[in-house]
Design a protein that fits this description.
Blueprint (H helix, E strand, L loop, with lengths): L1 E9 L4 H14 L3 E8 L7 E9 L14 E4 L2 H6 L9 E5 L6 H4 L8 H9 L4 E4 L1 H6 L6 H11 L7 H11 L5 H16 L1
Parallel strand pairs: 1-4, 4-5, 5-6
Antiparallel strand pairs: 1-3, 2-3
Length: 194
Amino acid sequence: MEFNLIITGVGGQGGLTLSRIVGNAAMHEGYNVRIGETLGMSQRYGSVLSYLRFGEEVYSPLIEEGKANLMLALEPAEALRNARFLGKDSHAVVNAYPIHTATTLVGKEKYPGLDEIEAALGRICPVYMMDFQREADGINPRTLGVLMLGYAHGKGLVPLKKESLQEGIRLTLREKLWEINFRALERGIELAKG
């Protein structure tokens, strides 16, 4: 078994933390894990891309174009920017909450419409797009990634046990953050089933 996960978003959204949660969960199940990161500007609003691979025999963190099993896109334009990693066997879970950069705010770049993004990605693979940020805000805004992970798990797109994901949260985050993240994971699973 080999699983290739792309996590993309902008700085400040918790994408790097999310990759560590999934990595710790996979190691808890005995898999080899490799994580690679590309940080355009990992401070607020710069592009962030994490490659996470796990399985029995995984040696490199890099994922070939078209070979991601799953993309968790914390920001919709970043999903489009990294669509090259998606293929016909991929799935994309996309947060429909745009974060405008300085260049789009001053009109130097046009931010694509959410329907355009969903249609473009949908030509490649199945897309699950909703405003996950609104759901996370009901718990804690910083739980966005874990909520989306729960959603993907609830759809059967993450080949790890829920208990392992909870252990990944315990191994990655401070204890005072466990409960809200367990709630976010559960809420994501509920949304996927609903």
